[in-house]
TrEMBL record:
InterPro entries: Flavoprotein-like_sf, FMN_Rdtase-like_dom. The lineage of its organism: Bacteria, Bacillati, Actinomycetota, Actinomycetes, Mycobacteriales. Residues 42-125 form the NADPH-dependent FMN reductase-like domain. This is Multimeric flavodoxin WrbA. It comes from the Bacteria. GO terms for molecular function: oxidoreductase activity. Pfam families: FMN_red.
Length: 151
């Protein structure tokens, strides 16, 4: 069974709503043969990342950058996972009250260094997530999980 690892930092109700939508999409009954594992960004280990076949990353954007928790996760897993996780699919969702561009750019840079493959557009939400935003998060989770079906 393939494993989708959702690495998230969920400090607010808006981030929680986005996280729950991602999980709902990733665990849709039409997606078979994929186990969804959730890890808080401050608790994820290199072993968690190595054991997974794909990733969804979630974070608030703080002052134009990913959360310190997600950065800590990358710092923890980067070198132990550098050569072993290349070409694995990933998706990203961000809650950014102001400008998520810096956070997107930073995650794109780190995931490019890891050799991960972006398989769906990033979801960046400002303010309270709208119905369309929640749907986009659902689609993000479902898309990355669907990439892993049959592995």
């Amino acid at each position: 069974m393939a494993v989708l690892l959702v690495i998230h930092h969920t400090p607010s109700p808006h981030c929680q709503e986005m996280f729950e939508a991602v999980i709902a999409g990733a665990t849709d009954p039409d997606i078979e043969g994929v186990e969804v594992v959730r890890r808080a960004a401050l608790a994820v280990t290199a072993s968690d990342v190595l054991a997974a076949d794909g990733y969804v990353l979630g974070s608030p954007a703080n002052l134009g950058y990913m959360s310190g928790a997600l950065k800590h996760a990358f710092d923890t897993i980067y070198y132990p996972c550098l050569d072993s996780t290349r070409d694995r699919p990933f998706g990203l969702y961000l809650h950014a009250n102001e400008g998520g561009e810096g956070a997107e750019r930073a995650v794109d840079s780190i995931t490019a260094g890891l050799g991960w493959q972006k398989v769906t557009p990033h979801v960046v939400v400002s303010g309270k997530p709208s119905k369309a935003d929640v749907e986009a998060c659902w689609n993000l989770g479902a898309t990355v999980a669907a990439q892993l079906m049959g592995q």
